[in-house]
């Protein structure tokens, strides 16, 4: 073996030069194309909008219809904004599933190998996916939240119990609904990056966002109350409420806690992505 051959053989992989087209803006453009090149993206976003607004209208209609039968205590706790966005409980699942698919579909089809060949810098690839998906989910989420608010409020106007966007806390709650949708999508992305399997990641996202949170109310004592306050959607949805009960976090604190629920697993998933084979 010649000295030149030996030097080539000993060269570390980290010195490999990435393709010139793998800068972050180029990778983001590629991820945008991949996201919208499949029909499931459009259908999932449509399901998000339809579920959130549709269920919100149903909740507003039901509240308006049963207002005369409501007790004074229930009327005092009535929140017209969160009622019009009741569909967030189901809409969050649509965006979470899309978040899972953004990364897990590449692992299931083997396309991740092509992506990593084109973009050897794995963190750049994951960052591009996260940035593109955050932008899409944030725009769609805020538009959906405003749509649910404006479509739902007419049901309350005839009784004088509705809200306007200029009232204290209303704008924050409506925008907060959009932020919650985006965070739920990133929660799904984090599950996909961590587990890499679509079925397992979707199951984990649905369980942690929809199934388990109500069950936390069964936990006894003060520690049970603490778990309820800090558990995923229990904390995150406070950003879309005007009135908070004594056992729940304030809007921004709750949203901050919810963000930790996706930041930590996404960071772990990123760490594993650097060390696991494609």
Count of separate DSSP helical elements: 14
What share of the residues lie within helices? over 70%
**Cα end-to-end separation:** 32 Å
Order of helices and strands: HHHHHHHHHHHHHH
Give unreliable regions as ranges.
1-18
Total domain units: 1
Beta-strand percent range:
under 5%
Mean pLDDT: 88
Reported for the largest beta sheet, the result is: none
Secondary-structure class: mainly alpha
Number of strands: 0
Rg (CA only): 22 Å
Task: Provide a descriptive summary of the structure in words.
Helix content is about 75%, strand content about 0%. The two termini are about 30 Å apart. With about 280 residues, it is mostly helical. The protein is globular and about 65 Å long. Helix 6 packs parallel to helix 10. The chain contains 14 helices and no strands. It has one domain.
Q: How would you briefly describe this protein structure?
A:
By secondary structure, this protein is mostly helical.
Feature tags:
278 residues; mainly alpha; 74% helix; globular
Could you outline the blueprint of secondary structure elements for this entry?
Layout: H1 3-10, H2 24-36, H3 39-65, H4 72-76, H5 80-84, H6 88-109, H7 111-118, H8 122-152, H9 154-157, H10 170-195, H11 198-215, H12 221-230, H13 232-236, H14 251-275
Helix pairs in contact: 2-8, 3-6, 3-8, 6-7, 6-8, 6-10, 6-11, 8-10, 10-11, 10-14
């Amino acid at each position: 073996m010649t000295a030149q051959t030996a030097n080539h053989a000993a060269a570390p992989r980290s010195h490999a030069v990435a393709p010139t087209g793998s800068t972050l803006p180029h990778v983001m453009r590629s991820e945008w194309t991949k996201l919208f090149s499949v029909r499931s993206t459009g259908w999932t976003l449509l399901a998000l909008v339809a579920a959130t607004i549709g269920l919100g209208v149903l909740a507003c209609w039901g509240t308006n219809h049963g207002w005369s039968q409501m007790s004074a205590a229930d009327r005092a706790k009535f929140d017209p904004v969160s009622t019009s966005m009741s569909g967030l409980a189901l809409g969050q699942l649509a965006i979470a599933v899309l978040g899972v698919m953004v990364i897990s579909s590449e692992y299931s089809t083997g396309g991740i190998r092509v992506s990593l060949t084109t973009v050897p810098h794995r963190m750049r690839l994951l960052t591009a996916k996260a940035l593109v998906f955050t932008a899409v989910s944030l725009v769609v989420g805020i538009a959906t939240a405003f749509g649910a608010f404006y479509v739902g409020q007419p049901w309350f106007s005839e009784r004088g119990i509705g809200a306007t966007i200029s009232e204290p806390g209303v704008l924050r709650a409506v925008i907060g609904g959009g932020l919650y949708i985006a965070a739920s999508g990133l929660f799904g992305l984090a599950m996909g990056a961590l587990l890499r399997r679509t079925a397992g990641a979707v199951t984990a996202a649905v369980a942690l966002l929809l199934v388990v949170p109500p069950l936390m109310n069964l936990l006894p004592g003060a520690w049970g109350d603490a778990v309820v306050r800090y558990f995923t959607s229990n904390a995150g949805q406070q950003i879309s409420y005007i009135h908070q009960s004594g056992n729940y976090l304030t809007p921004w604190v709750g949203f901050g806690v919810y963000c930790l629920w996706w930041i930590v697993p996404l960071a772990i998933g990123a760490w594993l992505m650097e060390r696991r084979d494609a």
